[in-house]
Write a structure and sequence with these properties.
Elements (H helix, E strand, L loop, with lengths): L1 H11 L4 H8 L3 H9 L5 H8 L5 H8 L3 H13 L5 H57 L3 H8 L3 H33 L24 H11 L1 H4 L3 H27 L1
């Protein structure tokens, strides 16, 4: 251990391992190997200095974490290993395990970073949806006459665009509603007195029970139906816009003739 500390002191003065090796007639690997022993815990370093731990096993110990150094040296001092080779092999196995744990930690970190990126992208998309909703609300405040004048004969084209947005929004709203229900379900703490016996739930796997029908009806009335107008309403709106378009075109022709 004194030799290792002497090499480390020379490195502190600016000497390289190669230069130190030349000074003492050693190889650079030998110098580095000796300095690695300084990574040992104080107690284990003392055992090495007293000659109770052989240099080869000591070097393998120096590459381990503090906890694994103790885990490997305990059976060594008890004489549980049949040979120095077995002891070194055990230390090498601990070293490989540490590397694997480090690899999986990096992988988990990468997965967390990917998930954070996905969340950020999802929030950005929601922001754009809110922005689109604001723009549509501004259009809704205008009268049909104003829209006809603004679009100048392209009412049908813009109506199609708005209709596509409406349908996409109605479809996209379904999954977030389900996600909200799932999130709320995870947070519920079910009281024992409210638990239902399994036989009471057996209303059939393929067909809903009688108690489920009113809920589905309510969802049909108060859920997506509010988001989606009927075909009759759409046809009426299209007819009205067509009339406005024709009126606007006639007005432009009369103005041009005058």
């Amino acid at each position: 251990m004194e030799e290792a500390q002497a090499y480390a002191d020379l490195v502190g003065f600016g000497h390289t391992a190669e230069r130190i090796a030349e000074m003492f007639g050693k190889t650079p690997d030998y110098v580095k190997w000796r300095m690695d022993l300084l990574n040992l815990t104080t107690d284990i370093a003392a055992l090495v200095a007293d000659g109770k731990i052989k240099p080869d096993f000591a070097w393998h110990l120096s590459r381990l974490s503090t906890a694994n150094q103790k885990a490997a040296v305990t059976p060594y001092m008890k004489g549980d290993f049949r040979s120095e080779t077995d002891a070194s092999t055990f230390a090498q196995a601990l070293r490989m395990k540490e590397k694997q744990e480090g690899f999986f930690s990096d992988k988990e970190l990468s997965e967390k970073e990917d998930k954070a990126k996905e969340r950020k992208q999802a929030r950005t998309k929601v922001y754009h949806v809110e922005r689109a909703g604001t723009l549509l609300a501004e259009l809704a405040k205008k009268s049909p006459e104003e829209l006809a004048e603004l679009f100048e004969g392209e009412v049908g084209k813009h109506l199609d665009a708005v209709e596509r947005v409406r349908k996409a929004a109605a479809e996209a709203a379904k999954k977030p509603r389900k996600a909200k229900a799932m999130s709320e379900a995870k947070q519920l703490e079910v009281r024992p007195e409210l638990e239902v016996a399994p036989q009471e739930l057996e209303t059939g796997e393929d067909e809903p029970g009688e108690a489920e029908a009113p809920e589905e009806t309510a969802n049909a009335v108060g859920g997506d139906a509010e988001l989606e107008p009927t075909e009759a309403e759409l046809a009426e709106a299209e007819a009205e816009l067509a009339k406005l378009t024709a009126a606007a075109a006639q007005e432009r022709e009369e103005s041009a003739a005058a």
